[in-house]
Amino acid sequence: ISKIKPDKRKSAVLHSRIVGMTTTGAAKYDDLLMNSSPRIVIVEEAAEVLESHIIPCLLPNCQHLILIGDHQQLQPCVNIQELSDKYHLDISLFERMVNNKLHLCTLNIISF
After folding, report:
1. Where in this chain does the record put each DNA2/NAM7 helicase helicase domain (predicted)?
2. According to the model, what pLDDT value does residue 2 have?
3. Which of 5, 11, 47, 63 is 20 to 30 A from 78 (CA-CA)?
4. Domain 6-99 -> CATH class
5. Residues of the chain predicted below pLDDT 50
6. How far is 21 from 17, CA to CA, in rounded Å?
7. Per-position DSSP letters for 27-88, written without gaps between them
8. pTM greater than 0.85 (yes/no)
């Protein structure tokens, strides 16, 4: 998306039913997200993503947040251990939701 001219980029996002990007891309292109007003946000490998990277993606029109991942595997990586310990930054939003007994669906069967 970075190689597309800004006006074409905006048009492409506004006319797409599905737009995928990393959380870094979402921060970089926040103006595009704001204009497209996504109603559904899906975060893959959510157990590894810092809350501070997910929250900015939750714009006013967001109706559903879908977190996909395994909260018992890798945790978010925080560069400053002291801050991580003090503010529990090593616990993802996904893990916090699981720990607080929010609605969870577990995939039991994988078929290829």
Report:
1. 8-78
2. 62
3. 63
4. alpha beta
5. none
6. 14
7. HHTHHHHHHH--SEEEETTGGGS-HHHHGGG--TT--EEEE-S-TTSPPPP-S-HHHHHHHT
8. no
